[in-house]
Fold this sequence. Notes:
about 280 residues; alpha+beta; five-stranded antiparallel β-sheet; 5 helices
Amino acid sequence: MSNLWEVLRTMARHTLxxxxxxxxxxxxxGDLVIILDNERSGxxxxxxxRYHGGxxxxxGYHHVMVKTRHGRKVRIPRHVLSKEVxxxxxxxxxxxxxxxxxxxxxxxxxxxxxVQLMRGLDMTKKQPTCPFPSCHGMTWPIVDNLLFHxxxxxxxxxxxxMYESEMAAEDLRGSLREKEATIESLVKEIGExxxxxxxxxxxxxxxxxxxxxQGAKEMREIMGQMKLEIDELRLKVGSKNSMIKSLKxxxxxxxxxxxxxxxxxxxxxxxxxxxxTQLKNxxx
Length: 284
């Protein structure tokens, strides 16, 4: 159990430094993956030490188990991954970057998505359990551990974040529309002030009145500040839209992978039934 938690604490994200293809998965240079193995020995994938036997060492290279952005778990050579860790960033707030996947998921659960994730658990038993059939019979005495499993192992976190990001992006769009309406109103007021200043900014003694000029100056300053805020909002909306598209692509890929697994499972079941039938015929 202690090794398990050591792995969870060190689930760091890395980028592929070159393309990687095998019969299980195809990854492109620049793709991000999370290392699921415990790399307590440091940069062992780059060292000259020899590791003997087993799936962790194949073809002369040290392999590690990774999780792709589509939720696939595969073994790939450690040397095709960057030495540098790619930090995680919260899509829903301005929290500082997080270096490990465990810290990122804990932050999302504790600060943003606990209620939404709790609603997805199976509450029909004395204690909450994972609703997925593959986890039937498993018990979770600590709810936080169950939430982490449910959010990360079944990729539920990405789906909930996609929805929450869409809602946040819609709020930003609404705020952007309000800012644009305010600017239009300010532009109109500035035009009226300029017209008023051109007609009546000179008093009976021939002196220029400062009130209209000062008002126009303040309006221009307000308008400039509003434009800066709108530019920032547009950047945030663009970022949210890009993230939503990436999450949707990932979800579509995960669905296709799941359907493929279901098909292979059905084929295996049919094959087993055929073998059982043949055995019965032989014994009879």
